[in-house]
TrEMBL record:
It holds the Pfam family Epimerase. This is NAD-dependent epimerase/dehydratase domain-containing protein. Residues 90-99 have a biased composition (Pro residues). InterPro entries: Epimerase_deHydtase, NAD(P)-bd_dom_sf. SUPFAM superfamilies: NAD(P)-binding Rossmann-fold domains. Residues 5-52 form the NAD-dependent epimerase/dehydratase domain. Gene3D superfamilies: NAD(P)-binding Rossmann-like Domain (3.40.50.720), UDP-galactose 4-epimerase, domain 1 (3.90.25.10). Residues 69-99 are annotated as: Disordered. It comes from Planotetraspora kaengkrachanensis. It comes from the Bacteria.
Length: 99
């Protein structure tokens, strides 16, 4: 999401945010994920490991921070909520035939 938002802002486009932007994510740098993966590989037991910072950041906050880095690009586009967007709604169901 960070790369997509940055790419849009650099092209002078608005980041697309589904829902109201209050959804949160835990953004982790890839180097930190790689380090955690290597550390887990050295453990004597197998397991399932959650890797994160423990810090939630709202999607709208992310877009605003990226927008501030590029003056004049902090506006965003908000399409109607779709499936999996956390905003409910979604596109209407396909028409059905009454045959």
């Amino acid at each position: 999401m960070v790369a997509v938002f940055c790419g849009k802002v650099l092209r002078g486009e608005r980041p697309v945010i589904y829902g109201d932007g209050t959804q949160t994510r835990d953004y982790v740098h890839v180097a930190d994920v790689a380090a955690a993966f290597l550390a887990a590989a050295d453990l004597p037991q197998a397991g399932v490991w959650n890797i994160g910072t423990g810090v939630e950041t709202g999607i709208l906050t992310l877009a605003e921070v990226i927008g501030r880095r590029r003056a004049g690009a902090s506006r965003r586009s908000s399409p109607p909520p779709g499936p999996g967007s956390g905003g409910g709604g979604g596109p209407p169901p396909p028409p059905t035939s009454d045959r």
